């Protein structure tokens, strides 16, 4: 079912003036009713769209990290190079400082923090080297051509280029065991500190020293030899994306839902978002005719548990500019907040009983004239850091 868009009547001149120079607390009004307030971050400026359509400037979000750091999403961990030393911390607390000197953040690969240790990789002389240190000690080089993935029970996972090995190492870097050789694909889940990978004709799950099969590729009608499958843990689900098919598994390996992506050139334009009640997912798929300069179609779909056909709840037609479109979807009850590169923003009813409320004009007026980059989220549910 295709959702009809609702136009927002907004005083564009007033909105432009408000976006460029209004102080915190100043409000203007757009003719819109929302299920919950929405916050829009536009560079150094931040706005809140209230349920009744009031738009007010609010103070910029203060990140809970030092200003000069790079942070690892979803963990609170961060790192920085200061005076040629690697500094590692979590939130606003510094946890460790390297004894050795490093030339900058660019050669730093992955930095992971455990309860009592830190592991990181550093590229020099054309090779990536794995280092490990206790939080109260000095780092030592553990192995060449290797980088850490993340911590788990009893140590941390690492990947070695030579031999294509997934490894389990102890807190201090000693090799505990080889998890698997030459996996077809793999992904580390920070939320559960687990590892998902495909090997031996199965989707596998690992946590610490435990490996368990989740699902047979043959049962999922996927090729056993050389499977081209992307894995992505989604909290209570595991996503498999392959051959224009979206497959979602429960954590016990049973099938949650599956569907085909639209052709031609159907592909996901962002992450799959799981509904708060766990009974549905939403995602965005981008398709085009395959010819240069053609009109592409970006569609928001909802796929419910046990389903095989997804429901289209929003469509947007846009010229193919050759740029990669990234979309984000966030749930609030039955409502979806959809945002995408290009300044697109809308509130979508996942049941398709009500037409989508388009906020694109508002988002574009609140962002910089030279850039439509912004982030939007339900005000009570800020994005994870």
Q: Helix share of residues?
A: under 10%
Integer count of domains: 2
**How many E-type strands?**
35
- Helix/strand/pairing category: mainly beta
Unreliable segments of 5+ consecutive residues: 1-23
Sheet with most strands: 5 strands, mixed
What is the overall pLDDT average?
A: 86
- β-strand percent reads over 45%
Distance between the termini: 35 Å
Overall spatial form: globular
How many helical stretches? 2
Instruction: Describe the strand arrangement of the main beta sheet, using strand numbers.
Output: 1-34-33-32-31
* Radius of gyration, whole Å: 23 Å
How would you characterize this protein structure?
With 385 residues, this protein is mainly beta. Helix content is 4%, strand content 50%. Strand 31 (327-332) and strand 32 (335-340) form a beta hairpin. The longest helix has 10 residues, at 12-21. The model is unreliable at 1-23 (pLDDT under 50).
């Amino acid at each position: 079912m295709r959702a009809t868009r609702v136009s927002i009547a907004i005083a564009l001149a007033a909105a432009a003036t408000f976006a460029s120079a209004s102080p915190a607390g100043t409000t203007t009004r757009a003719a819109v009713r929302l299920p919950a307030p929405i916050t829009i971050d536009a560079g150094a400026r931040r706005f809140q769209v209230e349920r009744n359509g009031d738009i007010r400037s609010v103070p910029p979000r203060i990140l809970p990290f030092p200003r000069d750091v790079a942070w690892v999403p979803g963990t609170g961990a961060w790192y920085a190079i200061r005076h040629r030393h690697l500094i590692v911390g979590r939130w606003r607390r510094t946890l460790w400082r390297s004894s050795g000197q490093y030339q900058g953040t660019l050669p730093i690969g992955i930095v992971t923090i455990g309860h009592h240790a830190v592991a990181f990789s550093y590229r020099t002389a054309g090779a990536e080297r794995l280092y490990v240190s206790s939080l109260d000690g000095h780092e030592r080089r553990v192995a060449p051509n290797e980088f850490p993935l993340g911590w788990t029970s009893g140590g941390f996972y690492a990947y070695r280029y030579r031999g294509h090995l997934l490894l389990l190492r102890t807190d201090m870097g000693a090799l505990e065991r080889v998890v698997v050789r030459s996996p077809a694909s793999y992904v580390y889940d920070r939320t559960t500190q687990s590892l998902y990978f495909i090997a031996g004709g199965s989707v596998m799950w690992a946590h610490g020293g435990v490996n368990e099969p989740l699902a047979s590729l043959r049962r999922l009608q996927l090729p056993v030899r050389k499977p081209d499958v992307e894995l992505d843990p989604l909290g209570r689900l595991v996503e498999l994306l392959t051959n224009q098919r979206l497959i979602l598994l429960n954590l016990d390996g049973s099938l949650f839902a599956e569907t085909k992506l639209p052709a031609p050139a159907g592909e996901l334009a962002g992450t799959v978002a799981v509904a708060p009640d766990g009974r549905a997912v939403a995602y965005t798929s981008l398709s085009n005719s395959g010819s240069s300069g053609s009109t592409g179609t970006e569609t928001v779909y909802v796929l419910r548990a046990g389903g095989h056909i997804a429901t289209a709840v929003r469509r947007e037609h846009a010229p193919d500019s050759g740029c990669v479109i990234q979309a984000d979807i966030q749930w609030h009850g039955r409502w979806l907040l959809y945002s995408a590169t290009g300044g697109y923003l809308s509130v979508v009813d996942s049941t398709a009983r009500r037409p989508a409320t388009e906020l694109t004009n508002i988002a574009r007026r609140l962002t910089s004239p030279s850039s439509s980059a912004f982030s939007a989220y339900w005000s009570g549910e800020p994005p994870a850091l």
